[in-house]
Write a structure and sequence with these properties.
heterodimer; A: 329 residues; mainly alpha; Glutaredoxin; 2 domains; 4-stranded mixed β-sheet; 49% helix; B: 513 residues; alpha+beta; Porin; 16-stranded antiparallel β-sheet; 3-stranded mixed β-sheet; 23 strands; 44% strand; globular; Metaxin_GST (chain A); Mito_Protein_Transport_Metaxin (chain A); Thioredoxin-like_fold (chain A); transmembrane beta strand (chain B)
């Protein structure tokens, strides 16, 4: 109510502007200069010939096109690469997304001031088929659903449990999600708390211990979460061993499902292996069980580890196993 | 109050009537002429020697004695001086009662000052060494309710809102106030704040306030919502010549979120969290005769803010300063006046830490940059209509200057006494963003040496070509709460991407350019 009330422009059907008035309006402004240049901070975000994929990443990693450290971002980043879509990466946060969650794509601009509509991840599949150079094969939906659930529930829960709730990975959580958001002690504390709460409620929604419960941390049965993840990874390893192409469901080339599995296995191997950990020998079995990277490597007879390596070398050939594979803290 | 038989007593009575409702009637007494004397006889009496024998304050049941002592003790002590005259005494008393009203804990219409001749009471031991009058002063006050709930509507600049408010007054008897507010409005989704404020050293013109706030505001001109959570500590003081200073520290967690689907890449790049930790100084000198419809006088305001530098830390680091001048002059014709206003501001990003020449400097964010244009500032443009635009989003700028000239004319029927005026105006402004070399490719940071040259060229850019200008005419209605304007305007000069309005525009606000 307090802001400007347009009467004259734009012309609407029910308001007829008399011709002389319209003529008067058309003569103004008397002088129009070129537009103002955008602020410095905007420029890296607004120029470029490629569509932009907004993901969780760091400035340096984004510049190199390195894998994102967020499972759903990495899944789609992998899939878009598999489909041969050309894009650039911009580090971002969930706040920037139209859906409230990363990733999303902002198509390239047709003109310098044009604001393209963002494409949410739910439409990435179509987008990849439309703009990609190769189309990854489809997997029969019935079988896919059963295995997709393994990723969406037990494996995801284990990832959430490890990253957000395990004190072992507090430093990692801070480095990936908290520190880039703010340098303030208080803001970081608040964000950490929010993230943990959100992760807990996600685990409780689907995890062992069952139904969505508003109650509390104590209800998360960590052992059960890890046990379910071990079983799920074993099942995936078995499924993979049945394929003779090296990709899931016997597909000729990697599919979206391969990308989904890779998103977790890559992050678990990269961030949660104890290969270089100082705490190696400590109380063997139980501790090792909690290292998701080790669980991935050991699942079945190492099929998942092999799958991860193959896909990684396929998509990030130059730097395989060196820069992006190891977590340089 | 007893009537006094002496001639002096009558004068006292006259003077008493005069300072009844002291705050309302007596204007600020000057050092040497405590009163604008109406007649010479009155003036004579004011020059008669007088002292204060006693001061009593009635009705301040919940107020600490110490607070009142701060005001009234000096009067009793100073007036022992043989040179004091009745005028001096009355002047001091009126000054003290005015101060008392400024604490904001007493009802304005409940004030009564009664002065009686002390000799009358003490007739037995009456022995006047000189012909000095000794006065007993009795001040009656009514305290305001200590707990007040209210609800209503409010107008800020370009925003209307509804609020509920609870005020706890005079909590510890020293004029401390706790005010808790909840509001929602046309652009404010929700806002909560609580302010505890207390006068320091028994002085109503020196106040310390501690505030906590949380709000969520829509910023439609840049397709996002901003959530704020934070607090501030402010020290405000009023100088003897009526200038207002506020010095404060504030720490605010800002979250830029809820982006519209059409949000531009510039806004998307700034989405997320940041903490601003800053010191702000505000100076206001308001010498206008009427803030809503000034016919004479001037307003000068400066705001300076230092954020993130040195020990302040936080996520943003800059020096931001803004100046606003406006003046009005009545013309010899009744009700006709001309006015002019000027605003300018500069936001200079700084490196974090103590260095001023750090390796890299983070450029400003959208929530720190200036916005320009709108019905209450540069009329004839939409809100944030001037300056850099990315798509439909007004992304703000780091340097701006804006000016306006206007003429107010009384309406033929309403006449010069009505709050309604016809307005002719022309205004314009320029808002420019800082450009600079990147510290590294793909990085958001600027090279620090580039910032200085960037600022220089941004300031120079202000004068490149004509500013964006609009002119028009309209009606102004000066309500005591806010000023309403309905204008018809056309843009004369614009820049591509800027959003000018052709036709009618409604403005509601307190502070217009």
């Amino acid at each position: 109510m307090a802001t400007a009330a347009p009467v004259a422009s734009p012309p609407r059907k029910w308001i007829h502007i008399p011709r002389p008035l319209q003529k008067l309006f058309d003569t103004f402004p008397l002088l129009a200069y070129d537009g103002n240049a955008l602020p410095a901070r905007a420029q890296s975000a607004t120029f470029g010939d490629l569509p932009t994929l907004y993901v969780f990443s760091t400035e340096e990693a984004a510049l190199l096109g390195a894998p994102s450290f967020n499972p759903s971002c990495l899944k789609w980043q992998t899939f878009l690469k598999l489909a041969g879509v050309k894009f650039q990466i911009l580090p971002s946060t969930n706040h920037a997304s139209p859906t409230g969650a990363l990733p999303f794509i902002l198509p390239k601009r047709s003109s310098p001031t044009d604001a393209p509509s963002p494409i949410p991840s739910s439409k990435f599949h179509e987008y990849a088929l439309k703009f990609g150079t190769s189309s990854p094969p489809e997997v029969p939906a019935l079988r896919l659903d059963a295995y997709q659930t393994l990723l969406d529930v037990p494996i995801r829960n284990a990832w959430l449990q490890a990253l957000y709730r395990d004190p072992e990975y507090t430093d990692l959580l801070d480095r990936l999600y908290i520190s880039p958001a703010s340098s303030s002690f208080w803001v970081r504390g608040a964000l950490r708390h929010q993230l943990r709460r959100a992760a807990e409620s996600e685990i409780l929604k689907t995890g062992p211990g069952g139904t969505a419960s508003t109650a509390l941390t104590l209800l998360v049965d960590e052992q059960a979460v890890y046990r379910a993840a071990v079983n799920a990874l074993e099942a995936l390893a078995t499924l993979l061993s049945e394929s003779n192409t090296g990709w899931f469901f016997g597909a000729e080339t990697p599919t979206l499902f391969d990308a989904s599995v890779f998103a977790y296995t890559h992050l678990m191997i990269k961030y949660m292996s104890d290969g270089k950990s100082e705490r190696q020998g400590e109380e063997g079995s139980i501790f090792a069980e909690r290292r998701l990277g080790n669980i991935v490597r050991r699942a079945g007879s190492g099929e998942l580890g092999g799958h991860h390596r193959r896909l990684f070398e396929l998509l990030w050939p130059v730097d395989s196993s060196t820069v992006f594979l190891t977590d340089k803290a | 109050m007893a009537s006094s038989p002496s001639a002096l007593g009558n004068t006292v009575e006259a003077a008493t009537a005069k300072i009844d409702k002291a705050a309302a009637i007596v204007t600020e007494p000057k050092e040497h002429e405590p009163y604008q004397a109406q007649n010479p006889i009155f003036e004579d009496h004011l020059l008669a020697p007088a002292t204060v024998n006693s001061i009593e304050v009635h009705g301040a049941n919940n107020t600490r004695r110490g607070l009142l002592d701060h005001l009234f003790k000096p009067i009793v002590e100073e007036s022992v001086n043989p040179d004091t005259t009745l005028g001096d005494v009355l002047g001091r008393i009126s000054k003290a009662t005015q101060k008392l009203t400024r604490f904001g804990i007493f009802k304005e219409d409940g004030f009564g000052v009664f002065i009686s001749d002390a000799r009358q009471k003490q007739q037995e031991q009456f022995q006047s060494p000189t012909d000095r009058t000794e006065l007993d002063v009795s001040i009656r006050v009514k305290e305001q309710s200590r707990l007040v709930f209210s609800a209503g509507t409010d107008f800020g600049n370009s925003e209307g809102s509804a609020y509920t408010n609870a005020v706890l007054r005079n909590i510890f008897g020293g004029a401390e106030t706790l005010s808790v507010n909840a509001a929602t409005g046309t652009r404010t989704r929700s806002a909560y704040n609580a302010v505890f404020s207390t006068p320091l050293n028994g002085n109503p013109d020196l106040r310390l306030a501690l505030e906590g706030l949380r709000s969520s505001t829509q910023k439609p001109w840049a397709s996002h919502d901003e959530h704020l959570t934070g607090g501030n500590l402010r020290l405000a003081w009023l100088t003897d010549n009526g200038d207002n200073h506020t010095l404060g520290y504030s720490g605010v967690w800002r979250q830029l979120t809820g982006l519209a689907a059409s949000a531009s890449p510039t806004v998307r790049a700034d989405a997320g969290d940041s903490l601003k930790s800053s010191i702000t100084h505000t100076f206001t000198r308001d010498r206008r005769d009427n803030p809503m419809l000034p016919q004479a006088g001037y307003l000068l305001r400066t705001v300076s803010e230092l954020a993130g530098w040195g020990p302040l830390k936080g996520d943003v680091s800059f020096l931001k300063s803004e100046v606003e001048v406006s003046t009005a002059q009545a013309l010899p014709l009744p009700g006709v006046s001309v006015g002019a206003g000027f605003r300018a501001g500069l936001l200079c990003p700084l490196p974090t830490g103590y260095s001023l020449t750090g390796a890299s400097v983070a450029p400003s964010r959208i929530n720190d940059r200036f916005q320009l244009g709108g019905p209450t500032d540069v009329r004839g443009f939409s809100l944030g209509g001037i300056g850099p635009h990315d798509g439909a989003d007004s992304v703000g700028g780091d340097v701006f200057a804006a000016g306006s000239v206007n003429m107010l004319l009384p309406l033929p029927k309403a006449g010069p006494t009505s709050p309604l005026r016809l307005q002719l105006f022309a205004n314009g402004g320029r808002l420019v963003a800082l450009q600079g070399k990147k510290a590294a490719e793909g990085s958001l940071s600027l090279d620090s040496s580039a910032v200085a040259s960037g600022m220089k060229s941004a300031v120079a850019e202000l004068a490149n070509g004509l500013p964006s200008i609009a002119a028009g005419f309209g009606l102004v209605y000066a309500h005591p709460v806010a000023r309403f304007e309905l204008n018809f305007s056309l843009p004369l000069v614009v820049r591509r991407g800027e959003e000018a309005r052709k036709g009618l525009q409604v403005g509601v606000g307190i502070n217009f350019l």
